[in-house]
Each structure stands twice: as structure tokens, then as C-alpha cells.
Amino acid sequence: MTPPTTPTLEIHVPISPTPMFLRQVWALAASLRRFGGRVGAAAPITAWVSPELDGLPDLNARERWAAPLGVTFRWVDPALFAEHWYYGTALARWSAAFTADVVLMLDADTLICRPLDELVAEVLARPALHGLLTHISPLTEPQWSELYAQAGLPAPALECVPLAADFMDFTKSKRMPPYFNLGVLAAPRALMHELGDDLFGEMQRVNAYVELVFRCQIALALAVARQRAPWVGLGLRDNFPNIAGFEQRAPQELAATRIAHYLNKTDTLNKDRDFSSFEAYAALLQRPGLQGLEALVQQRLRELGPCALDGWWQRWKTRRLLARTN
User: Over the stretch 302-316, which tens digit does the pLDDT of each residue have?
Assistant: First the structure.
């Protein structure tokens, strides 16, 4: 009997060519290989890089740690970036020629904490866009309706509730259309291609109505509506943020976290600070008192060992540090 084949997965991440982002990509890739299960062990990662360095150097040759971890760097088209800035980097990922069974779009500030095999199987069993409904709505209910009308779409059903509507008081609306956090999105490759067909056009329609930092997420909501794409709301375990309200409300989901999303910049875990250098990263590994999702992130990072971006002397010091903390 022929053994069943393992479904394939590919991952796409938008970054800038800075030490902070490169260290985050290393942590993401290393956690994928260490904790991502059978499907995660083989999944390639493409890091889409904002063209912010003169001459656009060959990052794949310069960052020698990347290839052994299955990471490939790809510069975003400079003209596209000049027109759309970092929003162009985020949406450029949808132009890839996807080949895997399932495509997973991740932010760099995510960490794989448990095997992804079950998540991939769920996406294939229910072919749809799988995403976490956002914590808050960026628009009021009348604004959602006005935007959809201006974009040439039927009135939205406003069938979804922002996940943090009960404890974040700056939520614009208690109802919204299917509108997802961009940090973790999964879909079969055919659907991901369909959603990407006119994402830049959708973003321009958003910009014509209102310019918000959430324009990429809103553009995806328009694409879902225009394509009449099926969707599935992920549980918190697949995009768990370091936000106390969620930790208090959903301890079972926290305990089962597959993908951690340390998006919130706190005194105890701040990605801009803690991934910027060897010294800052070492301080994060030994920082006392972390709780909840941040404690899980710290523990998983400790389990990964020294960062491959660091020199041999720094890696030796990290091993000494980890021996003391463990």
C-alpha cells in the first residue's frame, strides 16, 4: 500500500532589510523547523524585502544562515515600493507563483510553537481563506457600507464581531464584514491566487475612500467580498497576540497556541528593541517575570539556542546564558 503523501506548505513574510527583521525571520524559520511538525520541516519561506538598500545586494549570498533554514530573500520591485511603500511589500506576496498545497502568509513577528500539520489538514478539508477576525473594527458600520458601495460591491452583511469588542473601548463598530488580521492567513493555493488577482486595485479603492494603516487588511476584505470567497475564522491558538485580555479570556487557546504573534510592544517584550542586536536579544532570553504568551515566546526562543546571525563568540555566550537560565 502506498503511504499517504504529506500535504505541502509554503510561507511568505514581508520584511525590511534591518537587523531586527532578519533576526525575526531567523527565529520564525528556526521555530518552523523545530516545532512545526512534519509539514513545517519541509515548508520553504520566502521573505519579501522592501528595497531600502542601495544596489539591492544579494541577501541570499550575504545571509548564509538562511538557505540551510529554507529561507529565500526576494526584493520587492522598487517602482511598486515607491508607489505603495510598505503596503506594497505586504501585498507583493500575492504575486508569487504558488506551488504548495497550502499558502501561509505570516508577519515577521510570529513564532511557530506547535506542529502545523493539523492546521494544514484543516485548510485542505475546508478550502477557504482561514484567518483570525481582527481585534477591532477600523470603520463604523455606516462606513463599511459606504466603502462597499463606492467599491462597486453589494452592501456588506456585517456578520462578524471584532474579537476584542468586549474589552477594547476604541472599537469603531461591534459589527463588521469578514475582516482579518494580516499576521496569519492560510488558504489553498488556487484561492490565494484568486484573492491576489486585484489586491492593489482593492487597496486603491480603499485609499479613495479613507487612508488608514489598515488599508491592506481592508483591501483583503474587499477581495473576499468581490470573489465571494469562502472563509473560516481561525481560533486564537493560530494567531495568539500578547494581549492580556485574550490571555485572561481564552486560557485554553493560550495553552494550545500553534502560532504566537508578539505584535504588541510592551515593557517586557518589544520586537523593535529585543530583536535589534545580540545584546538586546540576550536580554530578552534572560528577562525575568514574563507571563502568558510572552513567557511562551521566551521559552520557545530559548529552546532554539543561539541565533545564527551572531558570530561564534556571541553564540558561545548565548549557550552559556541558556545553560544558566534552563
Answer: 999 999 999 999 999
